[in-house]
Amino acid sequence: MAVRPSSTRAPRVRNERARFSLLFALLSLAAVPAALYSTRLQNVNVPQAVGGEAVAGTLLGLIAVLLARSARAQVERTLARPGESAARAGKWLGLLGLCLGLTAALALGFFGLLLSSE
């Protein structure tokens, strides 16, 4: 039985952009419950919380999608394909967070339009 010496092992290649993409995507999705929870803790009303969620969710989702795009480009350049699934998950979850943030911004805009028409 031949044992490969530890000095001949290739260093493990990691795709940090894919990991950060997934992290930012999860943070963009966590902005919704955090905004709703903030209305119970402090003197924050719902429109202020939705406004904060719209900004945070949109920006974090956009960062996640951009990081996933660069991670996928890095995956295509390597043979080992490290971080491929994390980049894919980061892209889709980031798009979901981006859509939730934009939806919150639209809802806040229509709420402001309704208040101004009174």
Outline of the structure:
By secondary structure, the chain is mainly α.
Distance between the termini: 83 Å
Strand content: under 5%
What portion of residues is helical?
over 70%
Seen as an oligomer or otherwise, the chain set is: single chain
- Going by helix content, strand content and strand pairing, the class is mainly alpha
SSE order, one letter for each helix or strand: HHH
Describe what this molecule looks like in 3D:
The chain is mainly alpha-helical. The chain is built from three helices and no strands. Helix 1 packs parallel to helix 3 and helix 2 runs antiparallel to helix 3. The longest helix has 33 residues.
Essential attributes:
118 residues, single chain, mainly alpha, 3 helices
Question: Secondary-structure map with pairings?
Answer:
Elements: H1 16-41, H2 46-77, H3 84-116
Helix pairs in contact: 1-2, 1-3, 2-3
